[in-house]
Inverse folding.
């Protein structure tokens, strides 16, 4: 029963910590916006040439029109294909996208094993089973390849190694261990029945051992512990950028709301200006803070 409860704890923690991170971002002070065009929420006509509503005569007296279609399309392309990384760092995109696509497949696999655990035998069950196998293999292979590739890049490529922190190495190793252990379990269970057994145990609140004649295989126990750990760990780290992307796009890159008298933006700015200085904040300092440092110049001979 301990493994079943651990699965529930991991799932609840993932959701709770993700919501907490979103609330943290939502409460941050007014950002410094970029005003870089084109932005997809402008009308299609202006988006084509990078225009803005501020080009219109007396724009401040007119109703704003948002291009919801363009906004959603741009976000979906970025979320599903990591477009900006492809455009700006194409050589890194292949490995990074492999890891991310593997994660997307892992999410699909999780949904499919849940459906497959309770769907009756029939044509629909056959389709779900096929998709489960496909998603599971794609998730395991792509996550493993992506994690190994990115780990090697950070270990052996000078430009990446210079700014890689120990935590980033740990993150990749944790993802690699989880995906590799998933493949190990798949090699002994080609139908991914272990995934459906986990779902059955969770949603019937039964010990997982009941589905294995009283003893859960050691490789499955290790996989569950790794998967549960990574589910709890991801929202607490920079890997939680899946939460921050909404705010990055809507509140920084795309935000072109004007600061009009009496607006919410003005109220936010005034409120932030009234906040007392944080006494615990680290003071910026440099050797030149108290004036230039005079040093004796070496004499050239």
């Amino acid at each position: 029963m301990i493994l079943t409860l651990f699965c529930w704890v991991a799932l609840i923690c993932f959701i709770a910590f993700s919501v907490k991170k979103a609330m943290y971002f939502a409460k941050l002070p007014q950002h410094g916006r970029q005003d870089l065009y084109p932005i997809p929420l402008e009308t299609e006509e202006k988006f084509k040439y990078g225009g803005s509503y501020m080009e219109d005569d007396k724009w401040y007296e007119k109703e704003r029109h948002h291009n919801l279609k363009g906004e959603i399309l741009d976000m979906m392309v970025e979320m599903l294909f990591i477009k900006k990384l492809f455009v700006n760092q194409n050589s890194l995109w292949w490995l990074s996208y492999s890891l991310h696509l593997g994660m997307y497949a892992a999410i699909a696999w999780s949904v499919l094993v849940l459906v497959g655990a309770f769907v009756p035998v029939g044509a629909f069950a056959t389709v779900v089973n096929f998709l489960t196998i496909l998603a599971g293999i794609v998730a395991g292979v792509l996550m493993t390849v992506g994690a190994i590739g990115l780990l090697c890049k950070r270990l052996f490529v000078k430009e990446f190694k210079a700014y890689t922190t120990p935590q980033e190495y740990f993150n990749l190793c944790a993802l690699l261990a989880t995906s590799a252990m998933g493949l190990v379990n798949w090699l002994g269970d080609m139908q991914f029945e272990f995934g459906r057994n986990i779902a059955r145990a969770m949603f019937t609140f039964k010990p997982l051992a009941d589905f294995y004649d009283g003893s859960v295989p050691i490789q499955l126990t290790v996989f569950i512990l790794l998967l549960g750990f990574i589910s709890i760990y991801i929202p607490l780290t920079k890997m939680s950028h899946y939460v921050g992307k909404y705010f990055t796009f809507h509140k920084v890159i795309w935000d072109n709301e004007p600061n009009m008298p009496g607006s919410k933006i003005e109220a936010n700015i005034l409120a932030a200006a009234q906040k007392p200085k944080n006494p615990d904040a680290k003071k910026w300092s440099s050797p030149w803070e108290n004036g230039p440092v005079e040093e004796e110049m070496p004499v050239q001979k």
